Amino acid sequence: MPFLTLAANRIVAGEGVAAWRVADLFVTGPGLIALVVGLALGVPSGREGLRLAGGALGLGGLLWLLSQGASGLIADAGEYARVSPGAGFWCLLVVVSLLAADALSNMSPGPAARGGLLIASLALIALVLTSGALSELSIMREYTSRQDAFRDATLRHLGLAFGSLAAAALIGLPLGVWAHRRAPLRQGLLPVLSFLQTIPSLAMFGIMIPLLGWVGDSVPGAQALGIAGIGFAPAFLALVFYSLLPVVANTVAGLQSTPAATREAARGMGMTEGQRLVRVELPIGLPVILAGIRIVLVQNIGLAVIAGLIGGGGYGTFVFQGLNQTATDLILLGALPTVALAVVAAILMDILVELAQPTAETAR
């Protein structure tokens, strides 16, 4: 498989170049050796420290080959030439990343260790991106020419994902508590929310366009608040609807996870219904509730890309622009930050869920 592709410009298909041919062997040698040694360290089972080191060494080798190969290939290729990672790079990246992730999973680090590793990884990625080592890659050139638009898309994407999560939490948590207390409400509410979840994302966004378009035209002051048929508002509302089921269902499940004996003990101590909710049921059910919020956050980060189709902004703007222009690197400019944001959010939420687990001392 080609490790890099060299194209005459940003649109045409490029010519694949193998990893050992992206530059002189004297230049590519350290990267190739690091990659081979890293993969070899991942073979033995039960040596998780070595396997983790192998994954890190393999990633370092890939980075070396990518930076040196891009600068070497682009040097005499012309003003409009572009260098992009090829299928070989992506396959090797998946392999060494899975190697490191599997080693970490078997080592079972605690929340503090995982948080430290996440911070160190993000700092290393930021250092590499700001150092200019990858500046010759096509995706970095796309970013350089769109820095202001990328910053605006990032803020809009974060607003869609986290804003819809906050709105869903404000609505869904009280609804979940109420549904937990009232069985008839629970039996009627959860099927309705389940039905909303089954509507395809494009269809949901399409439904919002005429609905909010009518509100914007009919309600005085609505357009001044940004409510219209296209843009941020319909995308935001659609994401809120998608978010309600996990929040409400996990809130109900979390509150119901309190053992009956614990409820009876709290009732016997003279606690009111509100005190039992705040001091007993919510602390015990918090991990399940946070798991629902994790589902919503990761889901909304991905679904916010579709908002680019209806003018909602976010990273989806670059994805659909790239599709229209047949520019793969412009698609990656929107897709890769979305994936990275979802992975970071999932790891952080996993840490919070683990920290929320009741310990033996809190259980007593």
Structural notes for this entry:
The chain has a 3-stranded antiparallel beta sheet. It contains 14 helices and 3 strands. It is 74% helix and 3% strand. The model has no long low-confidence stretch (mean pLDDT 85). With 364 residues, it is mainly alpha-helical. The chain has helices at residues 25-41, 48-74, 87-107, 111-131, 138-144, 147-181, 183-198, 201-218, 232-256, 260-268, 273-303, 316-325, 328-356, 360-363; strands spanning 4-7, 15-17, 82-85.
CATH level-3 fold name of the largest domain: MetI-like fold
- CATH class (first level) name of the largest domain: Mainly Alpha
Order of helices and strands: EEHHEHHHHHHHHHHHH
Q: What form results from the Cα inertia axes?
A: flat
End-to-end distance: 59 Å
Q: What is the averaged pLDDT score?
A: 85
CATH superfamily placement of the largest domain = MetI-like
Q: Please give the domain count.
A: 2
Using the CA coordinates, give the radius of gyration.
25 Å
